[in-house]
Design goal:
Radius of gyration: 18 Å
Oligomer: single chain
Shape: globular
Mean pLDDT: 92
Order of helices and strands: HEHEEHEEHEHHEHEHH
Low-confidence stretches: none
Structural class: alpha/beta
Largest sheet: 8 strands, mixed
Number of strands: 8
Strand content: 15-25%
Helix content: 25-40%
Distance between the termini: 27 Å
Number of helices: 9
Length: 264
C-alpha cells in the first residue's frame, strides 16, 4: 500500500492525449509515473471532451490510484446557440473552465454538459453556457482555469472588478465550497503577476485558492517533444517566434515536493 505523504498533492488539471495535439500524456505511463511519485489520486481534464474518461477510470483503478473524472469546458457567457464571431471589446468568445465530478450525479452532469456542448454549442469549439451550468451544476466542483479562464482573463486586463464579478457568478452557480480560484506557476512573468493578484482577490471575495500545474506532458524532458506536437497542431515550425513551452518547460506532472516548493 502507498503511504500518505506529509505534504500530499493531487493533480486536478491534467490533459491526456485525448486532448488531440495538445497533450502527449498516455494513460498507462501516467499511472506508472503517479505511482513513482506516490500520488494516490489524479484528475483527467481534457479540452472540451470526455473521450478518455472510461479508459482513465479503469487504468487508474487498476493501478491503485483514485480517478477524478472531469474536463476543461469552453464556456460562453452569451448563448451557446449564438454562432456569431463578434465579441465585445476586452472579452473572449469563450473561456476555459475546469469541471470535476465529485459523485455520480456530477459525472452524469459532466456527460450531459459535454454532449450539449457538441450538439448545441459547437462554434469553433464545443461550448456550454451559463444556462446549462445553472441546471446541471450539482455534484460538480469548478476551477477557474488559467490564462484563458474568465477570472485570469480580466485580472490580466487589470479589470479586477469584472474578475470578481465572474468569480462570484460561478460561485453562486456551483455553491460555496465548490468553486476555486486556480493559481499556476510555470515561471512566466505574466502568470506570476496574475497569481499574486488572485491571492489578494481570494481574500477579498472569500473564494478559496487551488494550485495546479496544467500538465500536458509527463516529465520536464518531454518539453521538446511537446513543442513539436504544438507545431504540428498550429502548422508552425520549431523556429517560429510564437512558442511558449520551451521558454518555460514546466507543464509536466510535478511531484508533491515540487508543487509545495512552488506554492507552499
Amino acid at each position: 500500500m502507498m503511504t500518505k505523504k506529509t505534504k500530499d498533492f493531487v493533480h486536478l488539471h491534467l490533459h491526456t492525449d485525448y486532448s488531440l495535439l495538445e497533450s502527449a500524456i498516455q494513460l498507462k505511463p501516467l499511472a506508472k509515473r503517479l505511482n513513482e511519485l506516490e500520488m494516490s489520486a489524479c484528475a483527467i481534464t481534457d479540452y472540451g471532451n470526455m473521450y478518455g474518461a472510461i479508459s482513465f477510470y479503469n487504468t487508474m483503478k487498476a493501478n491503485g490510484i483514485h480517478p477524478i473524472i472531469g474536463y476543461e469546458a469552453f464556456l460562453t457567457f452569451g448563448s451557446r446557440f449564438e454562432k456569431s464571431a463578434s465579441v465585445k471589446s476586452g472579452e473572449r468568445p469563450y473561456y476555459h473552465l475546469v469541471l470535476l465530478a465529485k459523485d455520480l450525479e456530477g459525472y452524469q452532469n459532466l456527460a450531459f454538459l459535454s454532449s450539449k456542448a457538441f450538439t448545441e454549442g459547437m462554434h469553433y469549439k464545443p461550448r456550454i453556457d451559463i444556462d446549462l451550468l445553472n441546471t446541471h451544476s450539482k455534484g460538480l466542483i469548478a476551477l477557474s482555469s488559467g490564462l484563458k479562464g474568465p477570472v485570469w482573463h480580466f485580472v490580466n486586463q487589470d479589470n479586477i472588478g469584472e474578475a470578481a464579478n465572474k468569480a462570484k457568478l460561478l460561485e453562486d452557480i456551483f455553491g460555496v465550497g465548490n468553486f476555486y480560484l486556480e493559481i499556476q506557476n510555470h515561471n512566466l512573468e505574466e502568470e506570476n503577476r496574475i497569481s499574486k493578484a488572485l491571492v489578494k482577490l481570494s481574500k477579498d471575495i472569500s473564494i478559496p485558492l487551488v494550485a495546479t500545474n496544467d500538465a500536458h506532458y509527463l516529465t520536464a524532458d518531454d518539453a521538446r517533444s511537446h513543442e513539436l506536437l504544438y507545431c504540428i497542431a498550429e502548422g508552425k515550425t520549431i523556429n517560429d517566434a510564437f512558442r511558449t513551452t520551451l521558454k518555460s518547460p514546466n507543464y509536466f506532472v510535478r511531484s508533491a515536493e515540487e508543487m509545495w516548493e512552488l506554492f507552499g
